[in-house]
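FW: tagging you since you asked about this chain on Friday. Here's the raw sequence from the shared folder, copied in full. Didn't touch anything.
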Amino acid sequence: MVFRLMKSAKKKWRKINGPNRLPDVIQGIEFKDGIKQLQTAA
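HL: got it, structure written out here
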């Protein structure tokens, strides 16, 4: 059953856009509309 679920889910998967941004996402940097948001000191 799990195998069939994975096969059906695979049809909806797509390639990651911007794999070069993945390290920034892992570090917790926020993006808004694809633009990196720099944190400013308050």
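FW: The longest helix spans residues 2-10.
HL: agreed, and The first strand starts at residue 31 and ends at 32.
FW: great, closing this out.
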